[in-house]
Amino acid sequence: MSDRISSDRTSGGIPVVVERIPDSQSAGFMIGVATGSRDEVPEIFGLSHLLEHTVFRETKTRDSFQMAKEMEGAGGEMNAFTGREMTAFYGITIRETASTAMDMVGDIVANPLINEKDTELEKKIVLQELSMIENEPETRIHDLFESHLWRGHQLGQDEGGDKDIVAGLTAADLRAYYEEKYLIPNLAVYAAGDVDLESTVAWAESVLDVRAGGKRNVRTEPPMPQAEYKFVKSEANHLQVAMGFPSYGASHKDRTALTMLSAILGSGTSSRLFQSVREKKALVYSIYSTVSQESDASSMAAYMSCTDKNVEEAMATTVKEFGRLLADGLEEGELARAKRLVKGANVRAMESTEHRLYRLCVNNLLNGSTESLEERLAKIDAVTEEDVMRVAKDILRADRLNVVVLGKAGRSVRNMHISDLGF
Fold first, then answer.
1. What span, in angstroms and rounded, lies between the C-alpha atoms of 359 and 390?
2. Of 7, 27, 350, 419, which is most buried with the most CB atoms under 10 A?
3. For the chain, what is the largest distance between any 2 Cα atoms, rounded to a whole number of angstroms?
4. Distance between CA atoms of 118 and 111, rounded to whole angstroms?
5. Residue 201 confidence (pLDDT)
6. Is 90 exposed, middle or buried (0-12, 13-18, 19+ CB in 10 A)?
7. What pLDDT, on the 0 to 100 scale, is given for residue 3?
8. Which residues in the chain land under pLDDT 50?
9. Which DSSP string do the residues of 97-162 spell out, in sequence order?
10. Which positions ≥6 away from 230 have C-beta within 8 Å?
11. Residue 237: its pLDDT value, please?
């Protein structure tokens, strides 16, 4: 698979990154905005997410039904996402209707009405979404862990926000935030599929160059969190557990080695945690490890789902696997197997235009990267066992282990201390 990534800037200075996919039948366009939940003050916690929803309601030229008819009539779809450090809007169509995708995405970002009626309607939907997440423990545990790990810092503010604060937000709040944040230099444009750089730059100039006069959010690096245990009660009988550590920012030289460490521990059914905790002891229904990446920090954590009866042994077994890796190093062929697993996941994901857009946006907004698939695979190949072990010793530290347990549990689990895990 060959990547063809090119980049330029509009006359107004907006970065444009294009990935042309030979023989692609689709075309996708995304506008990224370098602002998210991390950049909110407590009084507006959740505004970025609500604004992301509301701009789809109505623009100066279309209402939501007209948008839906035009986009689906072009064989496409339009969506958006809010993260801790960015918000992004995208449209993907078949290649012969690419102009519709460009027009629609540009319209919702450059011309949203953001009136009171639309804001109140969308608040109802967002509040339902937040309620839904509260009742999806497999999703909620990720938010709880990140909020716990970065406690006391803006990075701990999850994307959805606080229900009570969201309920009190007004169209004037959203409009003020839009007029402050949705400006150059916070804007960036991405395209993937049957696209070209020249026409994408011309589109971005015509739609977005008028939005000048902004400034980048001022962010402070989070302090290094110390080890701590937290229990969160819920009505779910099945427990969700997160056990993890703070780790590297997006520009760190060992970012890829960190990915390999996480894969060795918990990616796939051949991983250490899956084999030791699930297959050999049947202590959990699911267990995996993942890295959650931000610009100046990340987390590497193991997530598992199990019963109250098994949770203490499952956590103890997980900790033992951390210790065994540190003490004994990697097994023969283990890194090579993990590399192929991660490379395979990367290659398969690149078959999706949506994923390519997402990757372009996230990598570029986190650290300015325009990394191609070939460059990504080469970095994976370059990781050595020594790299993985150096990172393991740096990351898998008892004084930085943080644990969150969600659900119904007995007294010993509710009152556990981090030192009880014996790591």
1. 27
2. 27
3. 64
4. 14
5. 98
6. buried
7. 56
8. 1-2
9. GHHHHHHHHHHHHHSB---HHHHHHHHHHHHHHHHHHHT-HHHHHHHHHHHHHTTTSGGGS-SS--
10. 144, 148, 402, 403, 404, 405
11. 84
